[in-house]
Amino acid sequence: MSRTYNDLSISDLSKLFGAAPTDNFSEDFLMARVRYDGSNDYLKFPCRLNAYCAFFCIKGSFLVDINVTTYKVTENTMIVYTPGNIVKLHISGQHDLDDLDFIIVAVSGEFLQGIRLDISSLFDESINVLNSPCITIGEAERKILYDYYLLASDLYLLDNAGVKEAMRSIVTSLFSIVGGMRKNEIDTKYGERHPGQDHAKYLFNQFMMLVTKYYHTEKEVGFYADKLCITPKYLSRLVKEVSGKSAPQWINSFITLEAKNLLKYSEMSGKEIAARLNFAGVPSFYKFFKAQTGMTPGEYKSI
């Protein structure tokens, strides 16, 4: 099999960003402040991170690719990353690098299991797909988040039996604040949700999480409806009402996005990509890709 993406763990990220290793958090948690000095191009190659991450820009700006979309992270902006997406930072070659100063926080799924929050609602796949993952931080929130960062930084290096549980409490508080900021941005942009929408939104979120997990192999709406114990007709209507796109469109968009990523960032052949995405063969993959993008895989790869 040809080379595809690098999968980076939290310990890999700790080494990359020069964070001091600790026995308490080596595989579960990372918090590091990064002042770019030109000696390292962080995440300069596309990779998948096995962690929930937040990049908070204190000064300067940088570009980040999440899958095939580029976002600009500027001062007082946070970008949220969920596991499984492809990420690449564009740092070298920019004009304002002397002032670049940002904080990265990375948390493993295992670490999150110990906190009392609905993580799926805070790191909601549908929010990442429907909206920009960038969050604008107000001045009051910036001060609070930075105070949390200072406290967490001290805890991170503390040799104490209770430090892990204490860090979970801090992370719980941080996620509550970040979740509130995300909700405010969504409500401002798309209008506040009404109580009657909650069940439909919940099912849509579950559908999106299932698609994220199974789109490599499952292309039929019936599979996802069975998982949710509802009929395909009801799921299709619900997804359309909540998102404005049909369930097949969402499934196809994930497949297309992965195909684009593999064509752009890997050395896999068309045959290997077709097999990875569970197509019957190269012709059916090419037909699907042309229908979705208007280009052949070769044409897309060459742009």
Please describe what this structure looks like.
The structure is a single chain. Helix 8 packs across helix 9. The strands form two sheets. This protein has a five-stranded mixed beta sheet. A five-stranded antiparallel beta sheet has the order 2-9-4-7-10, sandwiched between helices. The model has no long low-confidence stretch (mean pLDDT 81). The longest helix is centred in the middle third of the chain and has 28 residues, at 163-190. The relative contact order is 0.11. By secondary structure, the protein is of the alpha+beta class. The radius of gyration is 20 Å and the shape is globular. It has helices at residues 10-16, 109-112, 119-122, 125-130, 139-156, 163-190, 198-214, 221-228, 232-243, 247-265, 270-276, 282-293, 297-302, and strands spanning 6-8, 29-35, 47-49, 52-59, 61-66, 69-74, 77-81, 86-90, 101-107, 134-136. 49% of the residues lie in helices and 17% in strands. The chain contains 13 helices and ten strands. It starts with 5 loop residues before the first strand and ends with a helix.
Strand order of the largest sheet: 1-3-8-5-6
User: Radius of gyration, rounded?
Assistant: 20 Å
The SSE order reads EHEEEEEEEEHHHEHHHHHHHHH
- What shape does the CA trace take? globular
In DSSP terms (H or I, runs of 4 or more residues), the helix count works out at 13
Query: How many beta-strand elements?
Result: 10
Summarize the amount of helix as a percent range: 40-55%
The secondary-structure class comes to alpha+beta
Distance between the termini: 24 Å
Strand content: 15-25%
